[in-house]
């Protein structure tokens, strides 16, 4: 029998202790690197953008989130490290050191992405095709500061692991304590218990997030999604996310929710007729979707200042919804939301590609009623699968960068890649190719691109000068001017777009079809590259409905969204021009609210990124993840603590997600018989 204290008995415990100590040495260096990179992120964003008001609080929460991320990793990584260490101590240290270097590189890249977009990168990355990613990266580019920072951080990380880690003295008790704390942090969900702060600005709230933790967590949820649990027995359960029956909200009666989860009778009222004088022929409709056009810097009352003087003047002659919302935080959501009032599916409706369920839209229904339909875009219409969607809706003409003849000017390509043709050329191309004397009424959709990152515009010097003049005209003090100059490219591009709109409408007035045209102007989402004040700000865009056919104007403070546009336009056309459509429809939207006072009758989801359905509005409340906010009359919001109201929104939101998941798993939008009858192209 072997003695209990023999060397053979001691080997495994000794190796375990040695592994724990050497792992702790490298891990402590990694924590230092994480802290330094976060400090770099805060300072770099402060210089490039602005330093948050409560910098010490932001720094504290940033480091605390870093600590949680580090602790959550330790126990898992130690298991791998221990296995490797049993074979070779040197090999284990090399592998872990390489991982730490890669982790630092990833953190720098994610920081760079956030600094550019002001949105932490998550699983939305997986919602884009390789071609889309290449195009986006090609237009974004890399500056010299980022290159130098990358080299310094990479070299510093390697040097710290090589020279600093061996100098750190770690007792075995500390090494074991770190592993125990890591285990407890995960077991009890310590980070969730402590929660997250709510700062005044959404910029600060995003700044404190550990970008690597956010990316890994959202990626895990993307590839290993949990069940969508809905407690149908909860007291606050709402059987229809469109209304509880206990308030003024509008709801739908679904005809066959088991097979067609969104199918319901068409009950949208015509609220537009009181504002329009009748013409003998159906009107032309022109929908201008402006890239990044947010209310924060548009029209009177924009809290960042009014940088769209022409659009503002047009609003005063229009039906103007100042508290309007986009349905998405990126362009991917805008066409299906405005034109089809369609659900999001998993990564946005467009990402279903050829698997898009058969559906109807404003495009297909108006074509069925004799309209000629067209789409204009200065970039590549294949981006985000837009072309596929347009083809499935029988669009007569899809005009993108491939359709522009010689002699048209593209946007500058500072990083070697251009987004396409500038907005002045886009509008010129539209005006020259649309027949003003066409017999058939026209539905045209125009999507602009000049106000997209990297905000490289033609005649940049001219609009930079206008930017300075505009700030003076708005009465900005020196501090306000300096803060806005951090985003001079963005504001110059907005002024450029506004000038393009002025030229477009001045030219349109000379056309013979002008007096029989209804124009709609809205943003696809709020430009995220200028810091946002709160979560709802990302979706806050204007809606302007202008027409020489208007007999009176109005400014609406009530809340509506992109989902409401097509149902209301179709109700107006049916009431006044007897256009035909199915009695059963699948619109999520309940129609535009024309109340001049602030209210929200709508209960809708919002989708910030292709993998991020965490927002829901209901009445005067906005649910963002687990956080509840109350909207005010200017569509700002403040955090509130009301468990009953939060549960009410969560249950309504869960109901929508259940319906939405049915689309993902193969359920239909509308019966094939309806699609075959009203879609002009069979089998699309």
Task: Walk me through this protein's architecture.
The structure is a single chain. The chain has helices at residues 7-48, 55-87, 89-117, 130-140, 144-164, 172-188, 190-194, 202-207, 211-223, 309-315, 334-340, 362-368, 386-392, 423-433, 460-473, 478-485, 488-508, 565-577, 643-664, 672-678; strands at residues 264-265, 284-290, 319-325, 372-377, 397-399, 442-447, 517-523, 540-546, 554-556, 560-561, 584-585, 603-606, 615-618, 621-624, 627-631, 637-639. By secondary structure, it is an alpha/beta fold. The strands form three sheets. Strands 2, 3, 4, 5, 6, 7, 8, 9 and 10 form a nine-stranded mixed β-sheet that branches. The radius of gyration is 28 Å and the shape is globular. Mean pLDDT is 89; it is low at 1-8, 228-239 and 242-249.
Overview in brief:
By secondary structure, this protein is α/β, with parallel strands linked by helices.
């Amino acid at each position: 029998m072997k003695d209990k204290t023999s060397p053979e008995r001691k080997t495994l415990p000794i190796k375990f202790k040695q592994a724990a100590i050497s792992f702790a040495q490298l891990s402590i260096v990694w924590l230092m690197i994480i802290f330094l990179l976060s400090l770099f992120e805060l300072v770099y964003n402060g210089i490039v953008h602005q330093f948050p008001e409560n910098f010490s609080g932001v720094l504290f929460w940033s480091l605390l989130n870093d600590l949680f991320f580090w602790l959550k990793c330790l126990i898992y990584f130690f298991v791998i490290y221990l296995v490797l260490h049993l074979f070779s101590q040197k090999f284990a240290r090399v592998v872990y050191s390489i991982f730490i270097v890669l982790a630092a590189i990833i953190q720098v890249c994610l920081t760079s992405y956030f600094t550019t977009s002001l949105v932490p990168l998550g699983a939305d990355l997986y919602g884009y095709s390789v071609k889309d990613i290449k195009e986006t990266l090609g237009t974004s580019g890399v500056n010299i500061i980022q290159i130098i920072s990358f080299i310094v951080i990479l070299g510093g990380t390697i040097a710290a692991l090589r020279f600093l880690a061996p100098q750190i003295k770690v007792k075995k008790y500390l090494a074991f304590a770190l592993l125990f704390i890591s285990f407890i942090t995960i077991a009890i969900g310590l980070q969730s218990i402590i929660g997250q702060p709510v700062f005044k600005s959404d910029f600060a709230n995003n700044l404190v997030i550990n970008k690597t933790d956010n990316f890994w967590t959202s990626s895990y949820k993307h590839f290993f999604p949990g069940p969508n649990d809905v407690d149908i027995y909860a007291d606050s359960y709402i059987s229809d996310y469109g209304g509880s029956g206990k308030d003024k909200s509008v709801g739908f009666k679904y005809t066959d929710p088991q097979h067609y989860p969104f199918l319901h009778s068409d009950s949208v009222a015509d609220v537009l007729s009181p504002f329009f004088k009748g013409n003998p022929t159906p009107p032309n409709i022109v929908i201008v979707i402006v890239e990044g056009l947010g209310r924060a810097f548009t029209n009177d009352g924009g809290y960042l200042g009014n940088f769209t003087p022409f659009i503002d003047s047009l609003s005063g002659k229009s039906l103007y919804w100042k508290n309007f919302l986009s349905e998405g935080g990126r362009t991917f959501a805008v066409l299906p939301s405005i034109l089809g009032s369609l659900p999001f599916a998993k990564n946005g409706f467009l990402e279903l590609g050829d698997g898009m369920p058969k559906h109807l839209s404003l495009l297909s229904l108006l074509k069925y009623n004799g309209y000629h339909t067209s789409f204009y875009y200065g970039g590549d219409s294949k981006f985000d699968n837009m072309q596929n969607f347009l083809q499935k809706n029988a669009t007569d003409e899809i005009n993108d960068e491939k359709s522009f003849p010689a002699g048209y000017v593209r946007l500058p390509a500072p990083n070697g890649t251009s987004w396409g043709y500038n907005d002045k050329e886009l509008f010129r191309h539209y005006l020259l190719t649309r027949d003003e004397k066409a017999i058939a009424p026209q539905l045209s959709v125009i999507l602009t691109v000049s106000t997209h990152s990297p905000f490289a515009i033609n005649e940049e010097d001219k609009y930079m000068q206008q930017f300075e003049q505009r700030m003076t005209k708005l009465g900005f003090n020196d501090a306000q001017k300096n803060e806005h100059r951090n985003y001079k490219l963005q504001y110059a591009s907005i002024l450029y777009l506004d000038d393009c709109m002025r030229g477009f409408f001045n030219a349109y007035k000379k056309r013979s079809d002008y007096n029989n045209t209804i124009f709609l102007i809205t943003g696809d989402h709020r430009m995220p590259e200028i810091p946002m004040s709160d979560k709802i700000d990302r979706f806050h865009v204007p809606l302007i409905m202008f027409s020489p056919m208007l007999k009176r104007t109005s400014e609406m403070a009530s809340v509506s969204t992109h989902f409401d546009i097509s149902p209301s336009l179709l109700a107006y056309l049916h009431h006044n021009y007897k256009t035909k459509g199915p009695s059963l429809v699948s619109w999520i939207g309940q129609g535009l609210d024309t109340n001049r006072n602030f209210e929200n009758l709508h209960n809708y989801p919002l989708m910030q990124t292709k993998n991020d359905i965490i927002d829901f509005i209901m009445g005067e409340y906005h649910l963002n993840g687990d956080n509840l906010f109350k909207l005010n009359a200017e569509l700002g919001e403040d955090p509130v603590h009301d468990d009953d109201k939060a549960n009410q929104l969560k249950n309504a939101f869960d109901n929508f997600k259940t319906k939405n998941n049915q689309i993902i798993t193969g359920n239909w939008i509308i019966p094939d018989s309806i699609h075959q009858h009203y879609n002009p192209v069979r089998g699309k």
